[in-house]
Amino acid sequence: MNIATPIHAKSRIGHTACPHDCPSTCALDIEISAEGRMGRVRGAEDNSYTAGVICAKVARYAERLYHPDRLMMPKRRKGAKGAGSWQEIGWQDALDEIADAFVKAEAKHGSEAVWPYYYAGTMGLVQRDSIERLRHAKKYSGFFDTICVNMAWTGFTMATGALRGPDPREMAKSDCVVIWGTNAVVTQVNVMTHAIRARKERGAKIVVIDIYDNPTMKQADLALVVRPGTDAALACAAMHIAFRDGYADRAYMEKYADDPAGLEEHLKTRTPEWAAAITGLSVEEIETFGRLIGETKRSFLRLGYGFTRQRNGSVAMHAAASIATVLGSWQYEGGGAFHSNSGIFKFDNSELVGSRMRDREIRVLDQSQIGRILTGDAEALRHRGPVTAMLIQNTNPACVMPEQRLVRQGFMRDDLFVAVHEHFMTDTADLADIVLPATMFVEHDDIYRGGGQSHILLGPKLVEPPETVRTNLFVIEELAKRLGVDDRPGFGLTEREIIDRMLTSSGRPGFDYLADNKWLDAGISFEEAHYLDGFNFPDRKFRFRPDWVNTPAATRPPRSLGTLGPYEALPEFPDHVELIELTDEEHPFRLATSPARNFLNSSFTETKTSIQKEGRPEVLVNPADAEAKGIASGDIVTLGNRRGSVRLHAKVSDTVKPGLLIAEGIWPNKKHLDGEGINVLTGADQVAPYGGAAVHDNKVWMVRDAAG
């Protein structure tokens, strides 16, 4: 069983999975003391992807579980919103008040006035997605999730027709690993495990492509620092070199691609000189990259999320994936392009999320536009009534969502009721009416799947939670009872029953199998992973010429939203398109909000060690820019654009190129000098063609603060 492996008389090892929003979904071995307390956390050595390695922040998870500031009792707001005055109440009273608020909102404005809101604070399918079942049963406003994967998944699917690729463990068998747009040392440490193994065992070269000299760059044999939003130009130049110098696999393309002749003609003007002017790379760097991957059949393109969080992000992903087809890299073990395996698992989650109860006439609201929605923007509301009641689980929108000033303004509305189910008093919980304490991952049962790999992993309850905290599923079930829908399909089941039914209805072994075996490798065949039977389109051809508005994709908006953003500007073939926020005289800098090593979005921002290691909110500034602005490290600077302004400390560093600013980590708003975080500066306009939030794509001005 998952919890029964002994180590010595006073403790045991429990087996589970990391619940956080990371593609690695690491298999974990956790020491449990004789008193039932969580101890050391290690990566499972017998899991072939985790391979015994996890990130430092998860290794010290006990610091989070036993944090003195963890929420322990339900709370009701006493004074004004955001004033910090609370009183403890019982669970029954808290749930009664939430249900009553939902009933009143529906009576006044209809069921769409209630908007259940969630995301990926846990990636466990049961505790994350059960809120959808309540939504559909009650016909509450729908939820289009756009903050994370949209541009990346859209771009890859436009190329291949499916969200799958070569097994990422094949990186260890590659002769060249290209880590593109992901700071893997910080965000996906297991990518480095397999890439470095390839270097040690095969002499493989590691190429890293990113926008600044981050920790992953330190591992590179070839480090390419591009300007934000210009990755497609580099991809086009690499393919130009392949056609020009004979690296292109014409026989492969003839069989597997839609229009290689058209692509070759298109790329004749996409020279290294053209790309150098756009990307900021030298011609020599581009030529070196093109030659390296052209001469290396086993080149594995590990394509991340970071480079797609631009307004041309889908185009960038499509262009990067196209390289593997021009070179024919898909044919080889250790070759091809990989972004996510999220399309291989094929869970039947219809009962879990209540999909059969979904009413297509109910409006769907864009997650990233919460600020516009809560401040009454007619288009964001789909020209229907207001949102006046919310239940929020697994996310912290007052901190992590774009257009933060609008988000806060919306939450401060007197006519808006908000219940937040959380571990800590986050920026969002601070603005709530009712706050509920939530269990953490070792305190409940759940099941996980690894988009960055191929395992389905069980996460069983390993320790007893505090008596006064409750699971996400408990809250959904109790609200369903109070709202009169607990007799609908999917309600009334335990976590273990839900997991078992979902697995068996998907044609897989049930809960007991996973309890005995810890995980199930759902990996597909080499032929399917490498598309040797053709790509997932009717003609089995890779799309150099994507259909940007009609291609089926997991990220495609519902019909009620339609195609989004300036999709008319998307290119016929892989190309650089300047849909990004270009600098101008008033806004001479580009700002990216990159991940911090010791945080995961807004999680771990409360733990002592993570805070000590990260220090404080800072912005990285190139020395030349700092000198021109009279800025020294430690000075307070103000960054601003049309959305607002933020003050934080400058850190002068040659890790960023001139004209680029990097703010690492999503710090709590309250940790910033004025109580406003970096997402004041990010935009929520919808990205073409299937939506998304371009959080790394911002033009700003910067001045030294006179008081700093």
Automatic annotation (TrEMBL):
Signal peptide: none annotated. The keyword Metal-binding applies. Keywords: Iron, Iron-sulfur, Metal-binding. Pfam families: Molybdop_Fe4S4 (PF04879), Molybdopterin (PF00384), Molydop_binding (PF01568). Residues 11-69 form the 4Fe-4S Mo/W bis-MGD-type domain. InterPro entries: Asp_de-COase-like_dom_sf (IPR009010), MoPterin_dinucl-bd_dom (IPR006657), Mopterin_OxRdtase (IPR006656), Mopterin_OxRdtase_4Fe-4S_dom (IPR006963), Prok_Mopterin_Oxidored (IPR050612), YoaE_C (IPR037920). GO terms for molecular function: iron-sulfur cluster binding; metal ion binding; molybdopterin cofactor binding; oxidoreductase activity. It comes from the Bacteria. The keyword Metal-binding applies. Belongs to the prokaryotic molybdopterin-containing oxidoreductase family. This is Dehydrogenase.
